Amino acid sequence: MRIDVITIFPEYLEPLNVSLVGKAHARGLLRLGVHDLRRWTHDRHRTVDDTPFGGGPGMVMKPEPWGEALDEVTGAAGHPQEGSPAGGPEPQPPVLVVPTPSGRPFTQQVAVELSQRPWLVFAPARYEGIDRRVIEDAGTRMPVRELSIGDYVLAGGEAAVLVMVEAVARLLPGVLGNVRSHQEDSFAPGPMANLLEGPVYTKPPVWRDRAVPEVLLSGHHGRIERWRRDEALRRTAALRPDLIERTEPDAFDAADRKL
Ligand code: SAM
């Protein structure tokens, strides 16, 4: 997968070189490009913002640098995209991801969808956001996803990009040692969709007089699986009853219903 990020704070994205995403990058599973938006300004002050039409507080990011940056990074001016085989099928355009508190929620399902695309371009904003025409213009050439990481307001979209890139990258083939790790996570499509994962334990079997639940030491896979599902259901009912309410009734088996 290729990921490009356009930002006025390239250094904010440095954590992408660390840990799981950093390793994926180093191993060539992910190609990462971080671009300074100010490269596409043409005035002495390298201005990226201006006052909002209609008045009001704060500043709005100007369309010109964003437009030029997106044209160049995505090759939208009709140039063949990098990596497309000569005479091969039309390359897929990137998905433009615009982090914004006014977007649709970024969920595990969205992370799965994005992980199946070959190329993502992130456009994190600052101030009051990006001039709307930039999003509309890009939308004529590529799919645009305006996504929120939660019902709160950050100072800028870079932290949201870190969140989304990490959630997507760990789903890419080869990034996690064992694919079961993410297939059994909270929210994973399948039996865990709409469920929170229950508690986990490791050695030693007794610590500060607290014993690991006996079933986990039994070696009985069927019982362990049932126990894990029961714990996931209990935790979800206690902490996120909204998730249970939105689950189709036939997603619960007879043992689930006894709980
Ligand atoms: N005026 C905007 C509003 O009320 O919707 C908030 C702008 S916020 C101060 C600046 C930038 O931070 C946003 O344009 C977006 O890139 C990012 N941001 C803030 N909160 C976010 C969230 N919950 N999810 C994703 N991005 C967020």
Number of strands: 9
Could you say which structural class the secondary elements and strand pairing correspond to?
Answer: alpha/beta
Shape: elongated
**With helices defined by DSSP (H or I, 4 residues minimum), what is the helix count?**
9
Instruction: Kindly report how far apart the N and C termini lie.
Output: 42 Å
How much of the polypeptide forms β-strand, as a percent range?
A: 15-25%
Supply the number of structural domains: 2
Oligomer: single chain
Please list the strands of the largest sheet in the order they lie side by side: 2-1-6-5-7
Question: On the 0-100 scale, what is the average pLDDT?
Answer: 93
What is the name of the CATH architecture of the largest domain?
3-Layer(aba) Sandwich
Bound molecules: S-adenosylmethionine
Integer-rounded radius of gyration: 22 Å
How many strands, which pairing sense, and closed or not: the largest β-sheet? 5 strands, parallel
Q: What is the CATH superfamily label of the largest domain? A: SPOUT methyltransferase, trefoil knot domain
